[in-house]
């Protein structure tokens, strides 16, 4: 009960930790912000008071503590080998963020979370590490290193989600794949990754909220009778948008990055990223086909009278189709 009372306070200190990290002048201050963020997120994870959330909070704490220790150790070596410190800090931040090949904890933690905490982990908790990684790209070697990890993350995120039937693990591998696009775009421009992150946050939050409304945790849950046809159609739209399929809004940030990679003649990274994106699109389509074919006789066009659904559904639908207006305007201007 006490955790529920202080729940808004934990969210406030979580956001405060992010602002402290991204605006800090030193790595020590950034570390303090990351620790404040960590200590605020742990009670949010453990709010359910069951074995799954307890296990997830413990795993998350241990991994984040390891990453924080690596940041402190790297900062202490700054006077002795300044050229290599940024690379070590970059590795620690990739670990804290769950990028491949340091991704093994991320799907396991996601599996123990409720959908609201999972949305926070996929979106808000990525802000501070991503911004701090952008501070480490002060030489070409670190940029090439980041591109390598981006390509690994794209393949791991694509291949890892193929055999998943649990929705939270599947969305976790999807997040790893999208993380690769953000990391790759960071090596191109300081603003591209921010654009991608904003679009990704809205789309993934839409998918997570739809699953939260229906309490869907397995692919088979999407064919349940309570999952009405309007909700299914909107879920399909959000998943296709998350996969970057035109004309949905998720295609727009990927199109910008593809265009920039083509202009820079980086065709090999582009080919790898597109290949991994096609794999992720495959398991999004697998979700859609499974929910259509399994127990399809339970389709119903009735929508329950829930105020939250009535508010969110039009917003999600409008946002995912807004690219129909944005893309033509970009072509002319």
From TrEMBL:
Q: Where in the cell is it found?
A: Mitochondrion inner membrane
Q: How does it sit in the membrane?
A: Multi-pass membrane protein
What GO MF terms are annotated? NADH dehydrogenase (ubiquinone) activity
Describe the reaction catalysed, as an equation.
Answer: a ubiquinone + NADH + 5 H(+)(in) = a ubiquinol + NAD(+) + 4 H(+)(out)
Q: Which UniProt keywords apply?
A: Electron transport, Membrane, Mitochondrion, Mitochondrion inner membrane, NAD, Respiratory chain, Translocase, Transmembrane, Transmembrane helix, Transport, Ubiquinone
Q: Which Pfam families match?
A: Proton_antipo_M
One Gene Ontology term from the biological process aspect of the record: mitochondrial electron transport, NADH to ubiquinone
Q: What class of enzyme is it?
A: translocase
Main subcellular localisation: mitochondrion
Every copy of the NADH:quinone oxidoreductase/Mrp antiporter transmembrane domain together lies at 25-280
Transmembrane stretches in the record are: 5-22, 28-48, 60-81, 87-106, 113-133, 145-163, 194-213, 233-253, 265-285, 311-332
This entry's Enzyme Commission designation comes to: 7.1.1.2
Identify one Gene Ontology CC term for this UniProt entry. mitochondrial inner membrane
| Record-stated family | Belongs to the complex I subunit 2 family.
Q: What does this protein do?
A: Core subunit of the mitochondrial membrane respiratory chain NADH dehydrogenase (Complex I) which catalyzes electron transfer from NADH through the respiratory chain, using ubiquinone as an electron acceptor. Essential for the catalytic activity and assembly of complex I.
Would you tell me the protein name for this molecule? NADH-ubiquinone oxidoreductase chain 2
What species does this protein belong to?
Upogebia yokoyai
